[in-house]
Amino acid sequence: MQERVVRNDGPRLATRGLYTLILRLALPLALARLYWRGLKAPGYRRRVGERLAWGEPAPRASVWIHAVSVGEVQAAGPMIRRLQSRFPDSGILVTTTTPTGAERLGELFGEGVAHRYTPYDLPGVVGRFLDQVRPGLTIVMETEIWPNLLAACEQRAIPVVLANARLSERSAHGYARVAELSRETLERFSRIAVQSRGDAERFMALGAAPERVRVTGSIKFDLRQPASQRDCAEALRRLWGQRPVWVAASTHEGEESMLLQAHRRLLARIPRALLILVPRHPERFDRVAALVARHGLALARRSRQEVCGEETAVFLGDTMGELPALLAAGDVAFIGGSLVPIGGHNLLEAAASGVPVLVGPHTFNFAAITEMMLEAGGAERVPDAEALAERLRTWLADAALRAEVGARGLAVVERNRGALDRLLEVIEEAVGLQPPAAS
């Protein structure tokens, strides 16, 4: 691997020291939050020692990949497979912050990829973790920027690549409030592979070295639908029967009420319409089910294998790992987190299945991808529940229009594939490795 020059922190230690002090003071609150979340999602209370690098040591691995939750794990999946193929002797360790991310990793790779929970960004904790793993390369997915982690990797001459990175204007403003800490942290990345030119400009404005920033595109465009997913989608359609179906994916607190209002409006015009409702966080499944009941709508739950009869108005997708198949089985998809100011979620899983997409007004988390889809006519934006119901009525009543919009979205996905190849080139450049010669 390439030798890296290690800086003398000098006066910058004071800035990072204040950050570390605040983090130490917040640690009891962070642990208490794990316990509180664990009351409804027990996974948060399991293996807590890993977050402090205590207990059973993390396994040795040549490559450490940090992915926060389900979305990042899903995006990292093709990259992990390619790394395993190119460097078969390199052990891979993936860390996640959430139990759902850990579960998704297990579904994708089983025992083939090791997992640990992400260590808290305290010098002693990060140091213990790195001493256990001894990675030759660290890959951080999307926008996880941890000052002490970056400093510890630099001290050990471990290259760090920020992969599939995105930085919204809103997040950039937040980092700008701690400009000195942001600048010194970004300077420690070996490479920053960003999704768009706008992301690159925002990272460089915060202090990232221009020669280390590469626009590679989003690897989420490189997702491929396995045959098993298509089979699962077809099975779901048989389960639901021959009726108009729309999927509300990755929904959030306060959003489901608006979606249920829209569905009630839709039912007044298309009585057989079925809503597939998939909340973002598993710990909310029961609360959302109770909310559906309060709205007076007949419900069937996927987790309980309940029959989805003609009287069923809402099918709750309360299982893990099935969202891609649920989206592929729908006639129209609404992507959640966008009617409330969460910032939206990824449109591409629906678009890759040729399903037309609707989003709300708040899409800053996926601004570039959303604008691409909107400009191409593969998606439309609705301002509120009333407009959502009207657009659903139009699309669900016109199969030819749905097919046309879905084809435009799929074309966007097809045109933008290739980001994964470009990202792997950046990773190889960062560590000075070349893929094995073809035999």
TrEMBL record:
- Quote the catalytic residue positions: 72 (proton acceptor)
Looking at the record, the residues that make up the 3-deoxy-D-manno-octulosonic-acid transferase N-terminal domain are 47-222
Q: Output the superkingdom of the source species.
A: Bacteria
The protein, known as: 3-deoxy-D-manno-octulosonic acid transferase
User: Which residues span the membrane?
Assistant: 17-36
What is the reaction catalyzed?
lipid IVA (E. coli) + CMP-3-deoxy-beta-D-manno-octulosonate = alpha-Kdo-(2->6)-lipid IVA (E. coli) + CMP + H(+)
The organism's lineage? Bacteria, Pseudomonadati, Pseudomonadota, Gammaproteobacteria, Chromatiales
Origin species, per record, is Imhoffiella purpurea
- Pfam families annotated for this entry? Glycos_transf_1, Glycos_transf_N
Q: Where is this site: Transition state stabilizer?
A: 142, 220
Membrane topology term: Single-pass membrane protein
Task: Keywords in alphabetical order, please.
Answer: Cell inner membrane, Cell membrane, Lipopolysaccharide biosynthesis, Membrane, Signal-anchor, Transferase, Transmembrane, Transmembrane helix
User: What does the record list as GO biological process?
Assistant: lipid A biosynthetic process; lipopolysaccharide core region biosynthetic process
> Domain named Glycosyl transferase family: which ranges?
312-408
Q: What does this chain do?
A: Involved in lipopolysaccharide (LPS) biosynthesis. Catalyzes the transfer of 3-deoxy-D-manno-octulosonate (Kdo) residue(s) from CMP-Kdo to lipid IV(A), the tetraacyldisaccharide-1,4'-bisphosphate precursor of lipid A.
What are the annotated GO cellular component locations? Answer: plasma membrane
Q: In which pathway does it act?
A: Bacterial outer membrane biogenesis; LPS core biosynthesis
Q: Which family does it belong to?
A: Belongs to the glycosyltransferase group 1 family. Glycosyltransferase 30 subfamily.
Tell me if Ubl conjugation is a UniProt keyword of this record: no
